[in-house]
Amino acid sequence: MAESDPSSKRAKVELGDGTTAAQETSNPVELDATTKAAVIKQIQYYFSDRNLLKDKFMQERLKENKEGWVPLATLLTFNRLKALTTDANAIAAAVRGADSTLVEVSEDNASLRRDPAKPLAEQAELDKRSIYAKGFSTDKLTLEYVQDWIASVGATAEAVMIRKIPASKEVKGSVFVQLATVEEAEGIVAAPQEVDGQTLRVEMKHAYHERKSEERKKKKEATKLALKEEQQKERMEAVKATMDKGCVVHLTNVSEDCSREDLKDVFEEFGEVAWVDYSRGESEGYIRFKAADQTTKAVETLTERKTSIKDKVPTLKLLQDQEEMDYWLKVDEERKAVRKSKRDNRHKGHKGGHKGKGAKRGKNN
């Protein structure tokens, strides 16, 4: 596991077993890929149907917060998680970046909860007669205020949850209300609702969670896309700074009998060829010159001569602008793949370890 930035501040979080966990106040510890995957898997298990239906400790912790948030400090009392990392912010970052949306992270990174759009079976029945309402004045919002509104439309509020911001406990101006019947809930949602001159946005609770889950998914996808675009932009700038501009000739209609050597022999008439990007049997390829001063002449001269290579006259074009950039990006990918392959092979070569001092020597040693 990589170490965190030594300049970051760390606070001690008291755990239930008397030990402490480090919680970053700036940058979290950067977990390696294996540890991160293990953390995500363990967290998802804690909030899974399989565990929550039998884990009484977790059931009690979920009941302590009306919206189902469980403090990371509590989860860090679990030995399996604590063995992976004791950095609460690192756990929050790992869960927030996970592909699965089963577990959510609070805005202050201090708590986790199961996605309300994926309720346990028992809760699903209650959600069928529960609504979400938003638009209340925060200075008037109380349990009685909501109950009076529900009563004014001829329904009964069995339970009211005033929603708050987890970090500050400030009232959001929205509520969840559990009605006596599904019909009451659907009736309130179907009609326009207004309280003290303020129009309310009202929808079924499950519809709210589905909408929010979709919004979070789209936001996550947009963030990933923006990051990918930024990385691509940086990569293009790096490639642009190092590519040999104006040095690549693209060939099409190449003879299947043609070889790299055949192509190189023809193009070396015009200057030093740095690389022949071609495999026998393909119908197209690329010639990379060492310098750009001969490429135009090569294309023009060979085209005018209608030079045949292995009984076929290829079509030649000097790569420019986006076509040239696309080619060098492809070259960059191939170079990275080669470097990765070499690293992997070196790693495999070291897996066996080194022979000790007492290892037997062969006959020829």
User: End-to-end distance, in Å?
Assistant: 40 Å
- Rg from Cα: 32 Å
Shape assignment: elongated
Structural class: alpha+beta
Helical residue percent band:
40-55%
Strand ordering within the main sheet: 7-8-6-11
Summed over residues and divided by their number, the pLDDT gives a mean of 86
Which key phrases capture this entry?
alpha+beta, four-stranded antiparallel sheet, 19% strand, 365 residues, disordered N terminus
Structure characterization notes:
It is built from 13 helices and 15 strands. The protein is of the alpha+beta class and 365 residues long. It has a four-stranded antiparallel sheet with strand order 7-8-6-11. Strands 13-14-12-15 form a four-stranded antiparallel sheet, with helices on one face. A hairpin with a 6-residue loop joins β13 and β14. The two termini are 40 Å apart. The N terminus and C terminus are likely disordered.
Give the SSE map:
Elements (H helix, E strand, L loop, with lengths): L9 E5 L5 E5 L8 H14 L2 H4 L3 H8 L6 E2 H4 L3 H6 L3 H9 L6 E3 L5 E4 L6 H7 L2 E5 L8 H10 L4 E8 L6 E9 L2 H9 L3 E2 L2 E2 L1 E4 H38 L5 E5 L7 H8 L5 E5 L6 E6 L5 H11 L9 E4 L2 H30 L15
Antiparallel strand pairs: 1-2, 3-5, 4-5, 6-8, 6-11, 7-8, 9-10, 12-14, 12-15, 13-14
Helix pairs in contact: 10-13
